[in-house]
Amino acid sequence: QAAEKGGYAHYMQKEIYEQPKAVRDTLSGRVTEDGTRVVLSELGWTEDLIKQIDRIHIVACGTSYHAGLVGKAAIEKLARIPVDVEVASEYRYRDPIVSRNTLIVVISQSGETADTLAALRNAKALGNRVLAITNVVGSSVAREADDVIITWAGPEISVASTKAYTTQLVALYLFAIYLGQTLQTIAQDAVTTYVRELQALPQKLDEVLQSAPQIEEIARAFAVWDDAFFLGRGIDYYVALEGALKYKEISYIHAEAYPAGELKHGTLALIVDHVPVIALVTQDELYEKSLSNIKEVKARDAYVLGIAWAGDEEIAKSVDRVLYVPRTLPFFAPIMLIAPLQLLAYYASVARGNDVDKPRNLAKSVTVE
Ligand code: G6P
Predict the structure, then answer these.
(1) What is the DSSP track for 76-123?
(2) Burial letters 286-298, b for 16+ CB under 10 A, else e
(3) Which of 84, 117, 286, 304 measures 20 to 30 Å from 279, CA to CA?
(4) What ipTM was estimated for this complex?
């Protein structure tokens, strides 16, 4: 097993470090050589088929659901198609309104999650087209869906999902650009910019991972607390949800993600002296609003770790500690933000002496309903 971990202490740590390669592999062959178009030849869709899609339902569980939330933001922005995202165990029992031209997108790392598979089967029974985004070629979800986009993350062993999430995001970004370029809801210049920026992400991720020693030190200090709060606005909030999930599932510390603007409607009551607050601040148009939320928690003496773009000197004045990530398009921020959050959870779990790769009560693939 030590050899399989390739010198890392845990599979999770190894998988976090595999992310630059996983992103590169997931992009590979899916953009033209001149970097001006996305090609998803595995779909083989015609322009007519794409034009008929009037709504998209994304259905998934756990971390895959969190990727779906970012996917909604990307698809709605680039392709202007309305998207709903729902956890599979809710979606399948509530008789959702599904028009004939609603595309169902199921996201599943394993391709075997019972509720996700059941939602897929319901959609197929209704006669709707189902696209699967999965990491396992030949999984049930991959076999039963009409179309499949494989995330080339490679085998993920640790129960807490890391590189699968990142590659699900990449697949969703590619899909959103693909829809947008076909529907011409985005200009050619923008397509080129998006593609170029996607291709720069692996290198930037490598840079992010170099802050591991700082993150370890912060995680050790945070791990003595029984709570942690993750705040963000817009897409940052979706990443906060995934950051909190990672944190709670392996450190067993209560972690809550909140849209920063909602704080004063409840969570602010829980903010006490020195409690760790992790504030994600990458969305430029929400910057001032986020800073004022940070001031609200600082006024209650929380200890705030800000995660922001490199070069943002303003943020340093409002928080106790900053972690900088290389700048990319605000839209791709989740890829930059998630690695520090994964490392924070990882080191908090190590500090607490937990079984990082096999957290109590949790399974890698949930095949029961
Ligand atoms: C379990 C795993 C999570 C995963 C979720 C959905 O809860 O522990 O890491 O996100 O199932 O799994 P899937 O394979 O469908 O993505």
Answers:
(1) HHHH---EEEEEHHHHTTS-----TTEEEEEEESSS--HHHHHHHHHH
(2) bbeebbebbeebb
(3) 84
(4) 0.98
Q: Write down the pTM of the prediction.
A: 0.97
Compute, in angstroms, the gap from residue 23 CA to the centroid of ligand 1. Answer: 19
Ligand 1 pocket residue status of 64, Cβ below 6 Å: yes
| Amino acid present at 300 | R
Rounded-to-integer distance, Cα 223 and Cα 331, Å: 31
CB atoms within 10 A of CB 249: 20
* Pocket flag, ligand 1, residue 81 (CB < 6 Å): no
User: Could you tell me if the CB of 122 is within 6 A of ligand 1?
Assistant: no
Nearest CA to ligand 1 atom 7: 62
Compute the residue count for the chain: 369
Evaluate: CB of 108 within 6 angstroms of ligand 1. yes
- Quick one: which atom of ligand 1 is closest to the CA of 110? 14
Ligand 1 centroid – CA 364 distance (Å): 6
Ligand 1 and 89: CB distance under 6 A:
no
Q: From CA 240, how far away is CA 66, in angstroms rounded? A: 9
Supply the pLDDT for residue 240. Answer: 98
Active site residue 364: yes
* Locus of tokens 């779909």: 43
Alpha carbon 365 to its chain centroid, in Å, reads: 18
pLDDT band at 92 (very low <50, low <70, confident <90, very high): confident
| pLDDT value at residue 171 | 98
Report CA torsion sign: 104, 108, 110, 116.
negative
Which pLDDT value is given to residue 3? 76
The residue assigned the tokens 């179309």 is 147
Written as one letter, the residue type at 122 is N
CA of 144 to the centre of ligand 1 (A): 19
Q: What whole-number distance in Å separates Cα of residue 364 and Cα of residue 37?
A: 35
> Under a CB-based contact definition with an 8 Å cutoff, are residues 211 and 308 in contact?
no
Task: Note the pLDDT tens digit of each residue in 262-309.
Answer: 988 988 888 988 999 999 999 999 999 999 999 999 999 999 999 999
